[in-house]
Write a structure and sequence with these properties.
Strand content: 25-35%
Oligomer: single chain
Helix content: 10-25%
Shape: elongated
Number of helices: 3
Strand order of the largest sheet: 3-4-5-6
Distance between the termini: 33 Å
Length: about 190
């Protein structure tokens, strides 16, 4: 938990949550509930914020992953995000839905997506490191490396952080092969 509190309701704001709004009278930090309710009221939406409890799910190898959930209303849509928290922050995904859709329907879609994501395996142990599985496919997320000095992005594959140097070692056995790099929003599933 951070030491920051919502400027509207005063509740503590978790490190993975909160929205900083700029206004003529100064910036305000809002919790998800206050942000969503403010946006919904401004847009005249029939929206009721739901704070989902954290969920722990196991991946294909039986390793537990704890997820927190964050909802953001934007226009007539919303994004429901699952963010892995805990000792290893890795997996992140989201679904986009109509802002007035039942949030439990949206949550069910996100939950099923998480189960599919955790059921896939792209890397397997080999000696001291990893290798690409026989499927020959890597899926992951591009993120930032908070400890990196070179401002290089960090990849998250199977919930594990992978540097560009490590990616180079993963693909080096495939010299001469061709590849396809496809980029898409984290709310999409491919």
């Amino acid at each position: 938990m951070s030491e920051k509190t919502c400027s509207a309701c005063g509740v503590p704001i978790a490190s993975y949550d909160g929205v900083l709004l700029s206004a003529p009278d100064g910036a305000r930090l809002l919790c998800s509930r206050c942000y969503n309710e403010t946006i919904a009221e401004h847009l005249g939406l029939n929206f009721a914020h739901v704070a989902f409890e954290p969920v722990t799910l196991e991946d294909r190898d039986g390793v537990p992953h704890r997820f927190q959930f964050r909802t953001r209303v934007f226009g007539d849509q919303l994004s429901l995000e699952a963010l892995e928290t805990g000792p290893q922050e890795g997996y992140q995904c989201s679904v986009i839905a109509d802002a007035e859709q039942d949030l439990f329907v949206t949550f069910r879609a996100l939950f099923e997506r998480l189960r599919r994501e955790l059921g896939r395996k792209h890397l397997e142990r080999e000696g001291e490191g990893y290798r690409i599985t026989d499927a020959g496919v890597l899926r992951g997320q591009i993120t930032s490396d908070p400890d990196g000095f070179a401002a290089m992005p960090l990849l998250i594959i199977d919930g594990k952080p992978v540097t560009w140097e490590e990616l180079g070692r993963l693909v080096s056995p495939y010299m001469g092969f061709r590849f396809k790099l496809e980029l898409f929003d984290r709310s999409e599933e491919r």
